[in-house]
Amino acid sequence: MSFLILIRHGQSVWNLEKKFTGWVDVDLTEQGKIEAKKAGSLIKNKNIKINHFYSSLQLRAKHTLEIILKILNNEKIFTEAWQLNERHYGGLTGLSKIEMSNKIGEKKVHELRRSWNVRPEPLSKKSPYHPLNIETYKKISKEIIPDTESLKDTYERVLKYYNEEIEKKLTKNNILISAHGNSIRALCKYLFKLDNDQISNLEIPTGNPLFIELDNKLKIKNCEYLDKER
Question: Which residue among 35, 63, 86, 88 is the active-site one?
């Protein structure tokens, strides 16, 4: 038996402003920090030893995990992986979700956000929001940095990393992953065997740990969100 804990970062500045964030490296709001602290306390109450910690390369996920580790009194170094990053929203990056809904309609925005294999228009490489122009990604090979992604693209990169680097460790270890709405949505599609329609409609709350109990064959025995109020 082992445990896998998935947590979407606490509320970020652009979550609050309702902007398409993607790979732009924004930090947590004060509310996001509160969510992370509560998540840490809820995880601590489970009284289990967590052997490995993973985060995306993005500040909001790393900061969430750092707050949780402090609550757990754990100084363990965590692994950062760009493969766990949020979906790249292409040309939508930095735009207001509300303004875009008014401009092109809620149905079209929902299609661009949640359709399985629809990619927004590529983001210009000259944009300050393009990963090529953000310091966080300077060590990543330019050839693998996307200009835009569909949910399917995100699923494929997240699952490749999960299968190669994380899943095998779960047979004997408890693991916590701090990531993003779409990267966790990708993991949930795989773990819960969701179809493309189900995954498109799945909502992932910020800062609320999803606590998953696995048997010796890594089949799900039980799962719950730890913050029952949310």
Answer: 86
